Amino acid sequence: MALTMAGLAAERPLGLRVLTGGTLLDRPIGWVHPTELTDPQAFLEGGELLLTTGLALDEETSPAYVRRLVDAGVAGLGFGVGLSHETVPRALVATAAEVGLPVLEVPRETPFIAITRAVSRAVAADEYATTVRIGRAQQELTRTAVGKGGPAGVLRKLAKLVDGWVLLFDRTTVSEATPASARAYGPSLREELERLRTGTRVVVLDGQEVVLQTLDTGARRVLAVGASLDTAGRHIVNTAVSVLSLALEQDRAQAAAREALRTGLLELLVGGQAELALRVLAASGAEAPAAPWSVLVFAGPPAARRKLLDALENEPVFAARHGSTVVVLGAADAVTDAALRAGGLHGGLAGPVTAADFAAGLEQAELACRVAEAEGKLLVSAAEHSARGLLSLIDPVVARVYGENLLAPLRRHDETGRGDLETSLRCWLEHHGHWDIAAARLGVHRHTLRNRITKVQDLLGRDLDSPGVRAELWVALQT
Questions:
Q1: Whole-model pTM?
Q2: Which sign does the torsion angle of CA 115, 120, 126, 132 carry?
């Protein structure tokens, strides 16, 4: 910790006496500068303890001199007595008290070099402590990154080292927070994040400085640190940015490798090489759930599929990309819950199947998935789909388009309000072409029904006496 005016005054061998600034003595001293100039502003950076014997000062010139020192931002003034002045000028003390400048009286027996040495020792000790703190922090952050802690561990370690809170943003969305309650700051920082393209930005949030720093990663990520940062703290944050960037990129590369491996193993299963696939999976340190397997296939937007894969990362299932779908082997309930949370997904379920029957099970699950997409359902099982008979063998999208095209003339006619041809056709086919039964069910005379079916035949250009045509129309009506 830097030496303050109070700390310097407390060093008894120096014999310093505080004349003004009792409440301002916590100011840190950056360095010491002896001078007899009446206007030393050009030679000051701010934060210095200025030492003078007042050789060119008197009661008239002292007030303006003090104000110039305040403008220069000095930490305080040490006035040596016993040479040009027996006591510190009264006007200087009064003005310093008025404008808030700490003044220390330096006795003649205390050479200025003694004060310089005291401050120099303190500055050197502070710089050494800062260097040690930075070095230790770098080691801790690096060990955390390469150990089991990973990126999340780096964030926790950083928050502890700077005694503050830390957020990691993926674009403008909080992906990690330490502590968890710090997530509440996310929305307040969104506007600043949108402005930040690269580099560092410092903002004030609820009276506290927050450092926003972009990370050097493939995806746009930003680190936010809410803390009062000193020199060491800023170095620690810079180290964390470097370490975190590497850790995140390493995680991304490892995740991509795991994903590619799983996709390859899935292809082996589809190709009937289950034994090889399971052996490679075990060699990679992972395990597939015990066969027979439930096979689930989910389709949907890329972001939703990514969320599903992330959610299943630590579940006892095997999940892999397969084209534009996600294929999962494992407990259907847990997988379905994860898909529901991801949102926007539609899935098909088949099985349980053995390793030898996996390819057939996957095909059934994919077809059920297409049905779920067409009907807007979260999950359709292959068993449920197969119960639909002949329609279960037809791609649902193809079947829907076929039905819409075939029945379009009837639906256009019905939209004019000139007759309910589609309903009449459906009822007539349901009752196997029995005029009286179908007419009674529709509540119309059988001659009316005959006229409607004749109209259907004319509009479609099909012979409804043909069993094949009737079968086609029945399939179309079910889509």
A1: 0.48
A2: negative
Residue 366 has which token pair? Answer: 């994919």
- Phi, psi torsion values for 171, nearest 5 degrees: 60, -110
* C-alpha closest to that of 98 among 49, 52, 46, 63: 63
Which comes out higher in pLDDT, residue 433 or 46?
Answer: 46
Query: What distances in angstroms separate CA 275 from CA 187, 263, 267, 282, 294, one per listed residue?
Result: 50, 16, 13, 11, 18
CA angle, corner 342, sides to 224 and 292, nearest 5?
A: 130
Q: Which of 434, 479, 478, 475 is nearest to 453 (CA)?
A: 434
* CA atoms of 427 and 467, how far apart (whole Å): 16
Tokens of 436: 């009286």
232-290 per-position pLDDT tens digit: 888 888 888 888 887 777 666 666 667 777 777 777 777 778 778 777 777 766 666 77
Q: How far apart are CA 270 and CA 207, in angstroms?
A: 60
Q: Counting beta carbons within 10 angstroms of the beta carbon of residue 70, is it exposed (0 to 12), middle (13 to 18) or buried (19 or more)?
A: middle
In which order are the strands placed within the sheet that holds 208-214? 173-178, 165-170, 221-226, 208-214, 200-205
CB atoms within 10 A of CB 272: 13
- 318 pLDDT higher than 60: yes
Inter-CA distances, 104 with 23, 66, 224, 317, Å:
13, 13, 42, 73
C-alpha–C-alpha distance, residues 39 and 25, integer Å:
23
Residue 394: predicted pLDDT: 60
pLDDT at 256: 65
Task: Give me the DSSP letters along 139-192.
Answer: HHHHHHHHSSSHHHHHHHHHHHHHTSEEEEEETTEEEEEESGGGGGGHHHHHHH
pLDDT, average across residues 181-202: 87
| 397 pLDDT higher than 90 | no
Q: What integer pLDDT is reported at residue 367 of this predicted model?
A: 86
Count of residues making up the chain? 479
Q: Residue 370 corresponds to which amino acid?
A: R
Distance of CA 50 to the CA centre of its chain: 50
CA distance 376 to 355: 30
Cβ(83)–Cβ(53) below 8 Å: yes
End-to-end CA distance of the chain: 78
Residues 358 and 397: beta-carbon distance below 8 Å: no
Q: Return the closest-CA partner of residue 458 out of 419, 400, 404, 401.
A: 419
Distance of alpha carbon 345 from its chain centroid, rounded?
22
> Where is average pLDDT lowest: 164-173, 213-222, 316-325, 347-356?
213-222
40-85 pLDDT, tens digit each: 999 999 999 999 999 999 999 999 999 999 999 999 999 999 999 9
Secondary structure (3-state) at 217: coil
Residue that the structure tokens 């807007």 belong to: 376
